Amino acid sequence: MTGQTQLLEPLAYSVPDACAALGIGMTQLYKEIGAGRLTVCKVGKRTLIERSEALRWLASLRVAAVSAVH
Questions:
Q1: What is the pLDDT of residues 25-69, one digit of tens each?
Q2: Residue 5 phi, psi (nearest 5)
Q3: Which of 12, 4, 8 is nearest to 55 (CA)?
Q4: Residue 1 contacts residue 33 (beta carbons within 8 Å)
Q5: Do 54 and 20 touch, CB atoms closer than 8 A?
Q6: Domain named Helix-turn-helix: which ranges (predicted)?
Q7: From CA 24, how far away is CA 54, in angstroms rounded?
Q8: What range defines the domain where residue 41 resides?
Q9: Measured between alpha carbons, how far is 33 from 5 in angstroms, rounded to an integer?
Q10: 49 assigned to some structural domain
Q11: How far apart are CA 57 and CA 60, in angstroms?
Q12: 22 C-beta neighbours (distance < 10 Å), count
């Protein structure tokens, strides 16, 4: 390492950070979690959404949108 700090993509998001990253509100996020369409990890009382899970959920919306058009 050259002494420079590298900014890394987060491995997981807090609920507010996931909402910001996905562009949705907390109510919608919790609806998706409750419906089983978005899975979470619990660390103590803290709820985390893995980055890969957020990306998977987002990609599933494109598939659903394309299916609805046909």
A1: 999 999 999 999 999 999 999 999 999 999 999 999 987 667 776
A2: -85, 125
A3: 12
A4: no
A5: no
A6: 13-60
A7: 12
A8: 12-69
A9: 34
A10: yes
A11: 5
A12: 19
Position 6 in a domain: no
Question: Is 1 among the domain residues?
Answer: no
Encoded tokens for 16: 């507010």
Which 3-state string (H, E, C) describes the chain? CCCCCCCCCCCEEEHHHHHHHHCCCHHHHHHHHHCCCCCCEEECCEEEEEHHHHHHHHHHHHHHHHHHHC
pTM score of the predicted model: 0.78
pLDDT band at 8 (very low <50, low <70, confident <90, very high): confident
Total domain count for the chain? 1
**Phi and psi based region of residue 61 (left: phi greater than 0; alpha: psi -120 to 50; beta: remaining):** alpha
CATH number where 34 lies: 1.10.1660
